[in-house]
Amino acid sequence: MSVAKTIRIVAAVIRDGQGRVLLVRKRGAAVWQQPGGKRDADDRDDLHTLARELHEELGCVMQHEGARWLGRFSAPAANEPGHVVEAEVYEVTANGPFVAQAEIEGVCWVVPAMLGDLPIARLSREFILPLLVASPGNGS
Ligand SMILES: Nc1nc2c([nH]c(=O)n2[C@@H]2O[C@H](COP(=O)(O)OP(=O)(O)OP(=O)(O)O)[C@@H](O)[C@H]2O)c(=O)[nH]1
Question: What CATH number corresponds to the domain at position 84?
Answer without folding.
Answer: 3.90.79.10
